[in-house]
Predict the 3D structure of the following.
Amino acid sequence: MRREASRPRDDWAATVESQGLAFHRSAHPEGLSRPYWDEGVHYVFTVDEVLDLEEQVEELHRMCLAAAEHVVAHDRLADFAVPPAWRGAVAESWRRRDQHVFGRFDLRYDGTGPAKLLEYNADTPTSLVESSIVQWFWLRDVFPDDDQWNSIHERLIDRWKALTLPTGPVHFAWTSADETGEEVMTLAYLQETAEQAGLKTVAIAMEDIGWDALNRRFVDMEHRVVRSLCKLYPWEWIVAEPFGPHAMAQQISMAWIEPLWKMLLSNKALLAVLWELYPGHPNLLPAYLDGPRDLAEGPGYVEKPLLGREGASMRVVSPGVTVETDGDYGAEGFVYQEFLPLPDFSGWRPVLGAWVVDDESAGLGIRETSGLITDDTSSFVPHRIHG
Amino acid sequence: MTESGENPPQNPTPDDPTPHDAAPKDTAPKDAQAEDTTSEGAPPKGAVPEDTPPEDTAPPKDAAEEDAAPKEWPSQGPPRQEPPPRVPAPPPMGMAPPIHRRTGGVKRSSVIKLGMIGGLSTLVVGFCVAQNRYEEVNADCVDTSSRQADGSYAVVGDDYCDDTRYHGSHGAYGWYYGGARLAGRVLNGTMIKPSGSQISTRSGRVIQRGGFGFHVGGGG
């Protein structure tokens, strides 16, 4: 794994916009020295590194499924701050193994040792278009003879084909509150992959989803019944909203993408449960729910809110290092994970976003920050496989 | 109670609500290029090294990984569970086999509880009648504690049957389907929601909107 500079394509901005990355200006905070999509640098991996990482990703995914089983079997849902009224529904969703489509691991990796799990964005992963489409076309334009860890597009189409869905179109719901357009873009892309799989699809805003109280079902603006709903709206929010009880009652009769049981993987309490089940595993860092324990005396720790997003409300406590990010998350509790700084490549720190589609490794997207916490100031950089 | 009346959309649809347009329409070249890559002899994504068995021989792959697994583990640390086996992943640790139940969306149990008041045989007859009606079925919101000897119920305002409204602890209001209205009362219907029918109130469809979307910034 190495970081290389390369000359951006002359028309890169227009190109990535034409490929769907419409939000790359709007979603990025102003005043930063680099754009969100930065093809002035990229990472280079060997085939062996990628094959090895794929194995690690799939093993991590299997461990996460086993952790979900453990949490349900031992009634640990309170550790995940799942509201009491919803615990039964989450457990049932898992026991049914409600169908799922995708997720993204965030991994610390420096090219020398095993990747370390930082979190699993298993419910509402983004940076999908960058990973699947934009960096692929970059590769074709700039390094046409090289390869890329990226079968996301094909695998999404295959996954949509394989799902057993209720009759009627699949609805793709975004929130009109997202002003950057990132969520619309991601959902539009997912919708595109579903269309290519031969499914009929409909786009709708979460805010426009209607509840037909008499017929006890969700409907869209044209009164079509919503039987399959793909959303990027986190379950922990749905459970607390006025239609939450309806959503709970519609768990069996509807297909929800991602399903309700993904609450157990997208929650950082997962990190502590994994460490309980697989202590010392090379892809894990020590993590605890009840406090930093011995980490405070040793390498230091990162305090992560169970349900935080975009690196908000995080705190690094380590000898000589104290970093905090703003945010309002954490009311639901924290997990304390060993602090292992992100590797430094020419002053920038990459996080590997490893995609899982169905239950298999599907691709990679890399974000870089200058700081120790990957937040909304990070830039997406492409990668290639060479040698 | 109609959609355009008391329950307007909380956020009006934007002028162009079709985010589809934002998607890369022409992603076909990707597939084509992926094939090109293969034909050029470059290693395709996820290619297996030459000395490994072909991809479709799963069992040897399993064995290979199990053999390789121990040396990847560090020696430190207390005993731990082995990771679950390689794909195709069997359900880990005694998990129930995957079941995808699709029952058509009818949750009868709670409705039957309400209907027991009126006697099950009457209910079943009423249910079948309602089932045979091909098109629209009317629904009236009734006070379920008001049943009289003729089987009729007192009709109350639709909003008493709105799930989101609190009606006090007795909760004796429910929808009565396919009934005949007679002077503020309704009879010859059923408490069981008929499946496969479009149900309407006398005043039209009841659609509530704006029950999702109170948070901002969902992606992660």
